[in-house]
Structure formats: C-alpha cells, structure tokens
Amino acid sequence: MATEPSLAFYQSRVLLVLIATELVERRTVALARALSLEEASVHDLQLAFRQNKLTSRQLTKFYLYRIRRLNPLLRGVIEVNPDALRQADRADRERERKAKPYGLLPVLHGIPILLKDNIATKDKMNTTAGSFALLGSVVPRDAGVVARLRSAGAVLLGKASLSEWAHYRFSGARNGWCARSGQGKNPYNLSADPWGSSSGSAISVAANMGTVSLGTETNGSILGPSGSNSVVGIKPTVGLTSRSGIIPLAPRQDTVGPMCRTVADAVNVLNVIVGFDPYDAEATREASQYIPRGGYNQFLKAGGLRGKRLGIARNLYYSRSGSLVANAFESHLNTLREQGAVLLDHLELANLNEIYFDSGEDLAMSAEFKLALNTYLRDLVVSPVRSLADVIEFNNKHKHLEKMDEFGQDLFLAAQATNGINKAVKSAWQNMDRLSRDGFEKLMRQNELDALVTPGHLISGVLAIGGFPGISVPAGYDEKGVPFGICFGGLRGSEPTLIEIAYGFEQATKIRGPPSFMQG
C-alpha cells in the first residue's frame, strides 16, 4: 500500500529545485560575462550564433534571468511568454538545419523581443493595455507586426508595461503607471520620469531585459520614453507599419515602431515590421510606396550626415540657458556641422501655439478613440468588456484592483460623450491638415530641409498631427544622471534620410551607456 510522502521528502525536492535553479543562474551569469551579453547588439548576437558560441535558448534564458532579477524594481515587463524557450529551441533547430549546407536566416531570427502590451498576440500571453478590464480576453489573430516578427523567427519574450490605455484614461495619470504592473521606473534614476506611454518598452531594453522592443506612438509615446531612457526610438510614418491588432487610440495618428539600444538594431526591426497588411489595408497600401527597394539597412552610413540640411526652429522649444542639457545640445549642433551637415538656425515654425494648444487634436482623438476601441473590443473572441462604456463601468466597480485612489477616467468619459465623426471632428481634421501644410511642411520645403532637429521630443506634437516620422537618439545625461535625447523629424516617407542622419550622429557621439539604477 502506497504511503503519503513525508514533509522531509517535499523539503528535499524543494531544495534540489533551488540548487538547480542557482546552478542555472550561475551558468547564465558566467555565459553573459564571457560573451558580454549585456548591451549586445543584434549583429553581435547573430555573430555569436554563427560561431556556435551562443544559442537562442541561452540568450532567452539570460533575459528571463534579467527580468526575474530587475523587473520587481523597474516594472518594465508585465508578463513573460511561457512559450519563449520553446520558440528559442525552434530557432536553434532551424539554425542547425540551415548551417548544413549554410543558409541565410532573417536578421531577427532567434532574437528575443518585447512587445508593448497593447500589441495583440494570439498565444498564451494577454493583451490588455495594462488594464485588468482586458485580462483574459482572447484576440482573433496576431497583430500585423507580430505576424511579421514570427515569420522572421523572432522570439516573443513577453509584454512590456505602459502608461495604462496608452496614457489615455485619466489626464492626471503618472507616466509609466498601469494597474497590472504598477509604476514603471527609469533605470538611470529611479526617481526620474520614465515618460510614456511606451515606457516599459524603453525601460526594458535600456536595462537589458530584452534585445529589442516595440512601442506605439500617437503623440510622443515612442520619442518621449526613448529619450528619457537613453534608447533609440523610431516613430514611423503613419501606415508604414500595420496597426491591425493594436489596441487603438486615434487611427489617424497611431503608429508602431522599434525601441532599441542602437540605431542599427532599430533599423533591423523596422525592416521586418513594415509593409502592406490586408487588415490595415488603406493606410499600409498608401505608405508602402515609401519602403525603399533593398530595405533600410543600406542607409546605415557612417558619413550619413554629410550634406544633410538640418533646420533649427528655436521657437519650437523653451530655453534652458546655462543648463547641462542646453549646453550639450549646442555642442551637438557643432558635432553635426563637423560631420558635414548644413545647419539652418533660427528658423521659425509657423502656427506653433495653435499646433500645441488649439489644433482640434483632443476633440478628434476623443471621437476616434471611442469608435476605434469599440470596434476592437467587438472583434475579440472572448472579452470581459465589449465597449468603452463597459470599460468605464468595469473601472468603477473594480477600483480596489488599482491601489491608486486618485486614478480617474476623465478622458474615457469625454470620449464616451462623443457621437461619431461629426462636423466638428471633420473640421478639426481639416485644421490639423492646414497646420501641417502651412507649418512643418512649408518650413521643410521652402528651406529644402532633410530634417528638423530638437532637443528631447519637443517636436512630437508637430509630427503627430501630420503623421510624420521621427527618430530619437541618446544625446546625454543631466546633472542627476537622467538621460535626454535628440530628435530628428522629417516629412512622410523620409525614414531613409532620417536613418542616415541618426546613424551618423550616433556614430559620431556614441553617448549611450548602461543604466546606473541610482536613487534620487
């Protein structure tokens, strides 16, 4: 007759598991040190794969170890993919088959990537925009960009945290806060603002909890956290990357882009995720004309700044005279000149106050959000909520889940009060088109500019209302060690030129360093 195992038996089993886990972690740390996995680029990792010094499984385990150790502090990851190691094993098997005879694999093959938690995955992971209201919902299919990543053999490592609902629930919400993961922390200075809404995507790659990541931007949500967490962020032309399967905010402005430690890594990701998607047909068909034959890697040129005409519109940003940031920016302008760029200083962007304070963007966004979110929720296979009204009701009933009493939903209530695309919304759209045409576009064309340059992400509002692209590159650290970026913005479809400029600046300065995790 079988006897019940003793307490000592269970204790010994637990001890064996703990010892095995510690041994695995020690081997992981030793491998990481031997191969310098921290701060490793996609190119570095692919080289290690080809030389049989590293497997995708080992790399994935390294990042899972980093997440386990750092995420309780940083809150940059909401959840990890329970199938991540299986995907890594599959990548290793495919690489072994391709090696005999040698065959080329996509550049992201076997590379772990984190996805902002508003990007749908048809797997065991949740897609919730950081909210408990969508926990347990089931999406009908992968987001368009996720389908492309899977085809490229990337390992979907997990979901990155974000400012809940892409920072569109409560106007007073803190950057980087969401109900499911809590407050995201800037890894360079834990007391500093991580910005949003793609804060977790920036935090995680900055702290080496993933190789690369994806974020989304409606107005500043890639460019802002990229600068504040010392990573490279590309905000693509609207429609260049599919928005299908993305929990929407404002389809007129929403875009998906890479957030990585280097310009080259961001370009490698961009190459994979651009292109036509039948589930976002109108926007992606129109923007596909901008995709260059041969991809974007050809624009990673060390001398990419030579001959570029860069505009400086000083009325676009406030003065920080005497500060370290202001001095650094002026120094960077000199670097741009030394690298062969032609700088046109003291330009003036017309209608600036109207763009930032009276464009009609808020009105249009409210109406777009309600319609787009209701469509997204109705399309879910399983969901606790089916409309914005349901989400508002859920939030009212479950305040105890948030542990944040002051967290309201005034933006949700304003959106719920809208009634479709009426004359006022259409007028707002026309006004934003006019402001873009008479402001940014006119300035760029009249001065034959390749890009407009600003410190930080102060240009994001200008780029947002016109669907224009931008790239943020690490530009330094202030007196408290908090990172700041430099942003290059251009006309629709100008990604090739912006990549040349951003890469040229990065290679000339090489400012980015790993985070210090300092307090205060």
Automatic annotation (TrEMBL):
Domain of life: Eukaryota
Occurrences of domain Amidase (ranges): 59-455
Pfam families: Amidase
Cleavable signal peptide: none
Protein name per UniProt: Amidase domain-containing protein
Species this chain originates from: Corymbia citriodora subsp. variegata
